[in-house]
Amino acid sequence: MTLNFKAQIDGELVEFEARKYQSPAHQSVSFDRLKVYISNIELVDVEAGEVFTEVDSYHLLSFDADTDSAFFEIRNIPQTFNVDEIRFGVGVDEEANASIDHVGDLDPTNSMAWDWNTGYKFLLLEGRYYPSGDDLGEEIKMHIGTNANYANNLIGFQESISVEENPTHTLYVNALVPFGTIDLSEGTVFMNDERGNEVARNYMDGFISTF
């Protein structure tokens, strides 16, 4: 089964480095790059009462002006399996976040490892904020990690997906979700502090969806 991911806003692909958008707080922003880890994928066959757990399940989704989609394959699923739900984490679980075993996409060279601490950035979002009358804008930097900001998610599908048909299914990363109602006039850098935790609370639900 192939999972394909696209970064979108209001049903359209994000135009990185090329377009301004309105945040939920009605502030003008643009995007340079967006990266997010998803991990611990479990596929659920509700009717059969079975769960398939992917091994070494750590995937980095990366989007920018040159890359508008990201995908990976989940292998060794029984062919009789029908996928009704997918469970996954946004971020890296506590055990892997403290480990030096680089399984899956947990590679320190991918710009998602902290250079001052063990562990990984769960979300990297960079762009610009444009206060009224400012065409140059201010840098937005959201680098969010820490174990408390790991988020469990579940997505249900309207119709079962038959693995026997080698399906490709598209999910969408909703790029404005991390902003929530944050007021960027109070600062545009979000790290491992209370402001970073606010970003994490925003992406706990609805960040990745089927629409």
Radius of gyration: 18 Å
Q: Mean pLDDT score, rounded?
A: 96
Helix content: under 10%
Count of DSSP-assigned helices: 2
What can be said about the biggest beta sheet?
9 strands, mixed
Strand and helix order: EEEEEEEEHEEEEEHE
Report the strand count: 14
Measured by DSSP, the beta-strand proportion falls in 35-45%
Indicate the structural class: mainly beta
Low-confidence stretches: none
End-to-end Cα distance, whole Å, is 19 Å
Shape descriptor: globular
Task: Report what the structure shows.
The chain is mainly beta. The protein has two helices and 14 strands, in the order ββββββββαβββββαβ. Strands 3, 4, 5, 6, 8, 9, 10, 11 and 13 form a nine-stranded mixed β-sheet that branches. Strands 1, 2, 7, 12 and 14 form a five-stranded mixed β-sheet that branches. The longest helix has 10 residues.
Map the helices and strands.
Layout: E1 2-9, E2 12-13, E3 21-22, E4 28-45, E5 50-53, E6 58-64, E7 69-73, E8 82-90, H1 94-97, E9 123-130, E10 138-144, E11 151-162, E12 168-174, E13 189-190, H2 194-203, E14 208-209
Parallel strand pairs: 1-12, 10-13
Antiparallel strand pairs: 1-2, 1-7, 3-4, 4-5, 4-6, 4-8, 4-9, 8-11, 9-10, 12-14
Write a concise synopsis of the structure shown.
The protein has 211 residues and is mainly β. The chain has two helices and 14 strands. The protein starts with a strand and ends with a strand.
What are the defining features of this structure?
211 residues, mainly beta, nine-stranded mixed sheet, five-stranded mixed sheet, 2 helices, 7% helix, globular
